[in-house]
Write a structure and sequence with these properties.
Elements (H helix, E strand, L loop, with lengths): L1 E3 L2 E3 L21 E6 L19 H9 L5 E6 L20 E4 L2 E4 L25 E5 L22 H7 L4 E7 L1 H14 L3 E10 L6 H11 L3 E3 L7
Parallel strand pairs: 3-4, 3-8, 4-7, 8-9, 9-10
Antiparallel strand pairs: 1-2, 5-6
Helix pairs in contact: 3-4
This protein binds pyrazine-2-carboxylic acid and zinc ion.
Enzyme class: hydrolase
Pathway: Cofactor biosynthesis; nicotinate biosynthesis; nicotinate from nicotinamide: step 1/1
GO molecular function: metal ion binding; nicotinamidase activity
Length: about 230
């Protein structure tokens, strides 16, 4: 216990609110599962396949049953999108380019609007998903984050949606850990949400040290790193 001028504060009130006695993270009515970019292009055989990307699908299907509120995102680029190496002569995938809003990693063409590659995995089984948010649809601006485009100022509207729905605790899963998951987690923290990244429900791309850097940045920002098994029943 801590004694203060105002009286006694039980230590329990200082413990992370989410952890129950069993060390599990309990969910409540303010909790939302945010499933990032589980789309064919990022799955094995896709144009920007994330290693073992398909392994997240059964994990996500399982944990989604614990959430009353589920939101998904879909990377949704125009043909000739600024993030495609093919849009810049002499550039190859995984090289970088200085653009108006900073350094842009260049990717193989992926998630072009309306294509099969941009479709959500047919193996996702989360019929109670309440919102599917598309991002990266501006030709000249990428958007890894579900909240704010890569220019650092254009909002997707997601923070306002979650706030209007009184969803304060954001649990993130999906692809890729070191890009769209991490950027979404960091922006969610900036917008004032409590943020958990469910590590085994994510897979990373890991180019040029990006995965280790993403976890370091998330840790520093107060993002909680948990496993699917940490969620209370
Ligand atoms: C992503 C690279 C390019 C992602 C999207 O979903 O993490 N990565 N576009
Ligand atoms: Zn993309």
């Amino acid at each position: 216990q801590i004694l203060t001028g105002l009286g006694t504060i039980a230590m329990a009130s200082l413990a992370p609110k989410a952890l129950s006695a069993a060390g599990k993270v309990s969910l409540d009515r303010t909790s939302v599962l945010l499933v990032i970019d589980v789309q064919n292009c990022f799955l094995p055989g896709g144009s920007l396949a994330v290693k073992d990307g398909d392994k997240v699908v059964p994990v996500i299907n399982g944990i989604a049953k614990k959430f009353a509120d589920v939101v998904m995102t879909q990377d949704w680029h125009t043909p000739g999108h600024i993030s495609f190496a093919s849009s810049h002569s002499g550039k190859k995938p995984f090289e970088t380019l200085e653009v108006k809003y900073g350094k842009q990693v260049l990717w193989p063409d992926h998630c072009v609007q309306g294509t099969d590659g941009a479709a959500l995995s047919k193996d996702l089984a989360i019929p109670h998903t309440e919102l599917i948010l598309r991002k990266g649809f501006n030709k000249d601006v990428d958007s890894y984050s579900a909240f704010t485009e890569a220019d650092g100022k254009t909002t997707t509207g997601l923070a306002a949606y979650l706030k209007a729905r009184k969803l304060q605790r954001v649990f993130i899963a999906g692809l890729a850990t070191d890009f769209c998951v991490a950027w979404s987690a960091l922006d969610a923290r900036k917008a004032g949400f409590d943020v958990y990244v469910i590590e085994d429900a994510c897979r990373g791309i890991d180019t040029q040290g990006s995965l280790a850097k993403a976890w370091a940045d998330m840790n520093k920002a107060g993002v909680k790193r948990i496993q699917s098994g940490d969620l209370a029943a």
